[in-house]
Structure formats: C-alpha cells, structure tokens
Amino acid sequence: MTIEDAPEEWRVTASRTPFRGNKTSVRTDDVVMPDGAVVSRDYQVHPGSVAILALDDDGRVVVLRQYRHPVRQKLWEIPAGLLDIPGENPLHAAQRELYEEAYVKAGDWRVLTDVYPSPGGSDEAVRIFLARDLSEAGGARFEVAEEEADMELARVELADLVRGVIRGELHNMCLAAGVLALAAVLAGDGIEALRPAEAPWPARPFTA
User: Fold this and answer.
1) Catalytic residue among 88, 143, 146, 148
2) Residues 178-196: tens digit of each pLDDT
3) Which among 29, 9, 33, 8 is positioned nearest to 17, based on CA atoms?
4) In this predicted model, what pLDDT tens digit does every residue of 83-132 receive, in sequence order?
5) The CATH number, out of the four listed (3.90.79.10, 3.50.50.60, 3.40.50.720, 1.10.820.10), of the domain defined by the range 49-196
6) Which of 61, 69, 134, 152 has the most CB atoms lying inside 10 A of its own CB?
7) Which residues have CB under 8 Å from 43's CB, separation 6+?
8) Is residue 148 among the annotated active site residues?
9) DSSP alpha helix (H) spans, the chain
C-alpha cells in the first residue's frame, strides 16, 4: 500500500463568503457527502504561508518569540510569513521573511516539508524550508511594528527544541513540524535527500 495524500474534490452545490478580512476570509460550502446528504462546511480561506528553519554552522536554529493574541501566549517560533502576493515564488517569500524577521540570509535552501496546519477548518498550506550557510544581512534593518515590535531572537540547539516539543513546552506548529522533520532527516537519509528549494508545490502553484 502506498501511503500518500491524493487530490479529491466532492461536489459543492452552493458556496458563500459570510466574512472577508484583510488577509483571509471565511467560506461556507454545501458539500454532497458519500451517502447523498448535503452538509454545510465552514472554513478559513487562506493565501498560504512559508516558514524557515534556519540552521547555523553550530547546529543551532534561529528562533523568535512573539505574542499571539488568539492563544494569549508568547510563542517561540521559526521565521514565517504569508504568501500574500498572488503567484509569488515561495522561495523568494521565504528569503524575504528570513531577512525581515531575523536579519539573516542563507546560501543553501531546501524544502524540509509541506503541511496543512488545520485541514478540517482552513485551506492554509505551509511550505517549511531548511536554510543553511547563514550570514548576517547587510543594509538597513526592516522596520518592525505591532506584535513584532518586542520580538525576541535567539539561536537554540536543535536537540533542545525537539525536547521542548515532546515535553509540551513549545507549541508553534511550524517550529514543531520543522524541528521534528529535521531531526528525522538527520537520523535517516540526510539533508541531501531533501527536495530542492524550487520543488513543485501543488497546494500553492507558483511562477518561477
């Protein structure tokens, strides 16, 4: 048996958008179930995101601590951002986010993993990159505001982050998926087995 997700689309008899926000919206679809019943499904319509697990030469991961109002916590995270420019190349977006949030650039980029953070309630897709060969970015720093105004930056050993996830001390999905995926890669086939940075991403097709 091949264990692999596969595209499928059940028939939608009606669709409406009861809420439109600045970056996302809520859609209600009437979906035909396998038994013929029609049920309503509400979900967030999301442009997609990129996240970056930036690993330095000492085996430390670049992390940041930021307030997240919906959960009323300051969470340790990896740099990430929205794909809010239609058709934008996710690698270019990731490079921009790494610079803006961590003031770092990377010489080596690969796809670490692709995830749907909450497929029962959102169509958000996230591509998590592995970035290596880090160096400090030159030029002016990006001007931060709002939640990012008091953002903290740190570099933490990969093993410490893995332990934090397992112990329930670290909760951000991108951080958890990224550090666990990297730990599995390092214990298995190695970084050379990862997909190239420009690998196709059917969930969010992009231009070169």
Assistant:
1) 148
2) 999 999 999 999 999 999 9
3) 29
4) 988 888 999 999 999 999 999 999 999 999 999 999 999 999 999 999 99
5) 3.90.79.10
6) 61
7) 26, 27, 29, 120, 121, 122, 123
8) yes
9) 90-102, 158-166, 173-187
